[in-house]
Amino acid sequence: MPQSRQPLQPGRIVILGAGPCGLACADELDRLGHRNWTVLEAAPIVGGLASSVVDRAGFTWDLGGHVVFSHFGEFDRLLDELFAPHELLHHDRSSYIRFRDGWVPYPFQQHLHCLPHADAEECLRTLTHACRHREQSLPNGADFATWLQARYGSGLVERFLAPYNTKVWAISPEKMSASWVAERVAPVDLDEILGAFYGIKAPTPRWGPNATFAFPAHGGTGEIWRRLGARLGNRVRTCARAVSISPDARLVRLESGEAVPYDQLVATLPLDRLTTMTSTAPPDVRQAARQLQHTTVAMVGLGYRAPTLDERSWFYFPQDDVPFYRATNFSKYAPANVPGGDTTAYSSWMTETSVMPGTRVNQRDLVNASDAALRRHCLVPGLAELASAHVETIPYAYPIPTLDRDDALALTVPWLEAQRIYPRGRFGTWRYEIGNMDHAVKMGIDIARRLATGTAEELLTGQDAVPAVSRS
Known about the structure:
By secondary structure, the protein is an alpha/beta fold. The chain folds into three domains: about 15-40 and about 240-290 and about 405-465, FAD/NAD(P)-binding domain (3-Layer(bba) Sandwich); about 95-195, protoporphyrinogen ix oxidase, domain 3 (Orthogonal Bundle), CATH 1.10.3110; about 295-400, Polyamine Oxidase, Chain A, domain 2 (Alpha-Beta Complex). The chain is about 35% helix and about 20% strand. The chain is built from 14 helices and 19 strands. It has helices at about 20-30, 75-80, 115-135, 145-150, 155-170, 190-195, 220-230, 270-275, 285-290, 330-335, 365-375, 405-420, 425-430, 435-455, and strands at about 15, 35-40, 50-55, 60, 90, 95-100, 100-105, 210-215, 235, 240-245, 250-255, 260, 265, 295-305, 315, 325-330, 345-355, 385-400, 420-425. The strands form five sheets. Strands 7-6-15-16-17-14-18 form a seven-stranded mixed β-sheet. Helix 4 packs antiparallel against helix 5 (about 155-170). The model is unreliable at about 460-470 (pLDDT under 50).
């Protein structure tokens, strides 16, 4: 993605979307002294995928299992500005996978010593073979299923990695690229795993960037973005849905009929919708964007009139008889997530079920199945009274790294940038591997600096840059 190192004489910057990326972009523009910007948000509140809601019974819910951790100093600085130390609660991650009748600590592949003996032996046998033959068995451009087999062996793949990833992505791993894995899939050190299995070495310390995490004491994850939106003031316009973009006239048309002029447009809405809205997008660009795939997630929040005695954070379920792939002990994150902050009287669990877009979900059946699964696996007492059941359907939950994703991005993104339209954020870039909140904030800050000062973006470089392709 070629980036100018000179200011682009940005003029008026319009930002579509008041999620973490859009709000961070606006905040950074203010910080740089460029105040000629407007944020247009379709929803009545800010926060986007990171917003939170309060149901009728007084339970707070996030739109999925968010936790606050960071790769970037800019995100840390933002939290320090928005929250006093006592307003953020800090946790050590405690997450587990349900396997047969027991619990295996996360990551599964680093805790084979916790499996039943026969399962552990088979996983170790095939893992050892995979580690010894990895270079010969992994071709360039391998799909995700081939990558999993080559890296971990059939024992681990069959018992956890294949069924779990199929539930998360709602498609087969054979249809996915392996180019995205990076820090998203835990590595293995065969010597450490064998040492733990034979009791001669301590297990690997907690892996991953979210081994410790923070969470707002009140208001859920959405409190971060409510505070940032309030700081930015009335230039953040809610209930302002964009329906079309005219690059030639540099106008965004709103659902109300209003035309909003711009000189530069930062767009955090999904890339497929963005190209459809853009009047001059050529057929091959539109077709490329239509190839991009994503999941829809049904978040079922279940509030109980009973305390939870479980201190663990969240749980993964690869089983077919459990509708959700993850269950989060949400009252553990912050007492204020339950009515009156009274965790001696209430508890709350948040489950996530992934489906392909357009799939019809029977909400009543999903609530009943999710409640039954939590009780069956002893996360909720069998006689606990269900005080609330709240369902949020998230149409665009996660961008899927399909085999043809990078080719589609290589055609779509450079064309948009040539029109002074800059797609950023989780669904603007369509890159799950840089799809966390801290990534979104970093992207927003980076594009603000690029437009206002000519500074090259830092996150969208190297392997994350989208190369331009020639157009015939």
